[in-house]
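Dear support,

I submitted the protein below through the web form. The confirmation email said the job was done, but the results page showed an empty box. After a refresh the structure appeared. I'm attaching both so you can tell me whether what I see now is the final result or a partial one.
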Amino acid sequence: MSRVWRSRSALVALAVMLVAAAVLAVTRSAPTSVLPARAAIRDALRNQAVNQALAGTRWSSASASPLASQLERVTFSAGGQQVAQAAVRPDGTVDEVEALAHDRVPYGDWIAYEPAVLAALAVLFVLMAGVAPWRRLRNLDVLATLSLVLPVLLLERGYLSGSVLGALPGLAYLLLRCAWRGFARAPEPSPSTALFDLVTRRWEPGRRVRVLRLLLAALAIVFFMVGVSSPNAIDVAYAAMEGATRIIHGVLPYGHMPGDVIHGDTYPILSYALYVPVAWLAPVESVFSSVDGALAVAVLGALAVAVALYRGVAGPRPPQRRRPPSAETAGLRAGLAWLSFPPVLIIASTGTTDVVLAAMLAFAVLLWRRPAASMAVLAVAGWFKLSPFALVPLWLAPLRGPRLLAAIAAFVGVSAAALGLVVALGGAGGP
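What the results page shows now:
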């Protein structure tokens, strides 16, 4: 272990975590309630839409918590299951009501939640990611990853607390596993065979590649059919599209959003700017507008991650010839493993920007040996969702000389362009 902690990257990672923890501890503050809990619950129960949402739910408890500076969220539960929510203003009016018990699914397309779909995807995921013999750490990784299907199912049923707790074991295992894989000395790999290769051991390599390509094409079609037709996009999709529409009108999104999405104008500027081409084709002015464009972008983001994984695992294509069948098969299995991981289809069908962020990070890793390009993609990701900025010190730590200067220049260039857009739209007070 001493060799691990002597490594520069490990020390940088530890420093980033400590600084981030200190900043969060200092800046974190509990929001202030705008109404006493009893008053908020009473006002919610006086609202006709709330009573319609509660009809037939047999709710047994209600709680209130601050949602924003001028909103109180009232949650009605039946046991541990949330059945309805309402946003109440200080004057007692109800701003928004969610009939959770009456909704088929909380977000996304209901097809993606179907047990048969989840089971089929899980089997394909194991086939693509698992290995033989079964007593390999890789298979424990596969099981830990599949355990994250449980919190999705609990969230679908309205068990929010159970969903959070259900995610902890799998996330904790994967956190420790990735940290060990990233910073410890790599052990000698134990001999193993991919499950797909084992099942198809009698096939010739060319046939194996053709079947994997057909599976990849079929999954891509499924993603487009389920994702773009989703009837229940998440509020983040509306926020991104509304902000992009404001930019098209020459207006800085911050402070100028329609207000349909609570806290819709708190994302970094590229969360809106990168959706401008889609919003130009189909502007979004309110939650009643169509966000099919954002759904299509989420689907494309999911497919882009599959492409990055394929390229990263299969390796660069040799000049003037094809990749070896073994490398091609490994790359296709990696892309299929991502697309067949059951929650990915659900998340893509919500239209969330997180899938686009995943694609940016995947390509930043793929471009690792080209520091300037990799850092530019990472900087775009940071101005898209902020949290990737924590990875910048790790990206810079192993670099020296011209490569370090090129990476810093790429980061500064992207950041200057993002800030320039804010100033162009909002003037000197924009930032």
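Response: this is the final, complete result; the empty box was a page-load delay. Residues 40 and 88 are 6 Å apart (CA to CA).
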